[in-house]
Amino acid sequence: MFKNVFRSGFLIRTVHVILTWVITLILFLHDTDLRRQEENGELMKPVAFSLLVLLSVMLYFTVSLMDPGFVLSDSTKGSSEELEEMIPQNPSPRLRRCGYCLLQQPMRAKHCQTCKHCVRRFDHHCPWIDNCVGERNHRWFIIYLTVQLLALLWAMQISWSGFHTAITWKLWLSVNGFLLATLCVVGVFSLVAVLLLGCHLYLISINSTTWEFMSRHRISYLKSYGDEENPFDRGILCNLWDFFCMCRTVMWEQVYYRGRHNHV
User: How far apart are CA 115 and CA 95, in angstroms?
Assistant: First the structure.
């Protein structure tokens, strides 16, 4: 029973929610800028901070529970044959079937052993959200990271504002212990969020995924390219526009062929 609860992601999501609101409660209960503004009737910043935290939790559940782009069935009958007729066979790798779910894999898809599905434009499986990051939720994952980072940085500033001086270290720790623990936890998560967001924005700017970047030497459609070459790269501005503004399933086989044709 407990194993099924953990696998369902219930435990991870519960820990995330509890940790988020415990930290928020500590910031409100201690003598921080947040508490002082609330007591003085200046409610704008306390309400704004609470709404930002609430938004981060809502985005967390959105990304965590959202379909990342699972390949649940083969394309409509005849579509694969039409696609292979449209794309010359010599320069482009043939479409392959997944060895686990036995479905036809679109280009840039990968089977996730944890989710038991192939995922379109697979980036990685994130244990913290207990879900894959793929074609359908990657954009929301970036938005979530951005909002979460803003909430964490604000929480760090609020925590710092609550520290008070004391005569001895022992007395100082007894007065500021909870805030110090909160600052450490928030600081670690802030560092992780900064690194994740920076890495993902870089990969988005070159139209690559974490999986492709880390395993390109083992991916059939990237083996013939050098380390600095990418058949899906359309330039920074176009890549960012396509990622954040284009809400559709991309036929990466066509993009790949055009990129390979220009490469040749």
Answer: 22
Task: Residue 193: name the closest of 153, 239, 156 by CA.
Answer: 153
Residue 110's Cβ-count burial label (10 Å; 0-12, 13-18, 19+) is buried
Phi, psi torsion values for 257, nearest 5 degrees? -65, -40
Q: How far apart are the first and last CA of the chain?
A: 56
Q: pTM surpassing 0.90?
A: no
Tell me how far CA of residue 28 lies from CA of 25, 124, 127, 264, in angstroms.
Answer: 5, 36, 30, 61
Q: What share of the chain is helix, strand, coil (3-state, %, to 5)?
A: 60, 5, 35
For 182-233, the pLDDT digits (tens) are 999 999 999 999 999 999 999 999 999 999 999 988 888 888 888 778 889 9
Tokens coding 156: 């760090």
SS3 of residue 104 by DSSP:
strand
Active site residues: 126
Q: At what angle do helices 236-245 and 138-161 cross, to 10 degrees?
A: 90
